[in-house]
Fold:
Amino acid sequence: MLAFYSITIVLLFIIMYNKRRIRFSWVLIVLNIAVASCIFYLRHFDEFYRILADIFYFLGGVSFIYFVFKEYHEIFLKPEGNDMKIMNNSKNLLILIIFSIFIINTILFILFSLLIIAGVMMSRIYLQKKSLTYLFMFFALISASLTVLFSLLANLNLVWSWELAYVSKFNLFSFLLATGLSSPVEEKLKKSEKEHIEAYNRAEFYKDLFAHDMNNILQNILSSIDLIPYYLEEQENKEKIYSLINVAKDQVNRGANLSSNVRHLSELEKGDFSLKKIEVMDVLNKAVKYVRESFHDKELQIDVISEVESFFMMGNQLLMDLFENLLINAIKHNENEKIEILIKIFELRNQDERYLKIQFIDNGIGIPDKMKEKIFQESSLKTRKSTGMGLGLSLVKKILDTYKGEIWVEDKVKGNYSRGSNFIILLPAI
Structure:
């Protein structure tokens, strides 16, 4: 019965290994113990089979010990730089085992001792990882230790030793079975936990994005309202007053559209979005106009040099936010009295594919080389808190990914980042 039980567990572990849910070393452990269990039943025909079974039990135990030592080394010793120490200890251990293999009782005693040590290590691994799979492996180690102990006592002809060894073997296989079954379940639980954490982080980000963008919108409205009484003192400022009123209206409309934009961002995260044919130059010109009106209190110079009159691509309304964010980013991170932004546009061809290359060149504070890639990563969201009314550079990257476009940043003056930045995007044509 125990032999069939062990074979069933071997098959389960092989299936779990093929699905990449357990380690190969675990399969090796179970395989050696299962072979030992099958051979052990042949001891009735020849006592030699008992010795052969003990050897396979020994190999299974060594595999178990090696796995635990390796796992313990990776978690606790490797970070401290003790690689050579553990390797030397392992070599000495293997030499000792090889010289002891011909003396069965000595082998069993060494194996029992090592299993106890491995059990202590496994308990520490479990406390570190808090994993149900490692807990079952710990109990399997305890059962393996008891099996070896009772086998050793049986060789000394102590009463009930074989019966207790049999019970320990059954417990060993039961815990190995539990290990094989718990591994995929635990993996699903970890995946579910990760998804919940990501969902929570997204919700927190959208909350911050909404609050931050709304604050900017209200600030622009307040700024426009504060300037109106100043311009009312002189009659010839009527056009400026109307301009300020229009800015306030635009901000109100933007506030109304903010919830829609957040929904679009959520769709980006889920991969649930739609694209349509849009004309890029028209969207870019609207973004430039909007930014100029929003920052009328600053000395702002935005020049556009384009070799392209029109360019069509598959996009959506987030393209406007993308352009605005890059422009606002250049304004917000600029300490000069006069803010200069040069937008250069031209078309690229790569075999049968066409791209629109747009460069946003500013005279701002620049970006150090070590930060050039990090600013597009999601971890930078919390530190940048979305650089203006835009979406944050990491989400700009996500939007471009949905368009199958690209973005990177270079120095305005090569080798001197403090002279300004050059944000470059590539947009594919239809």
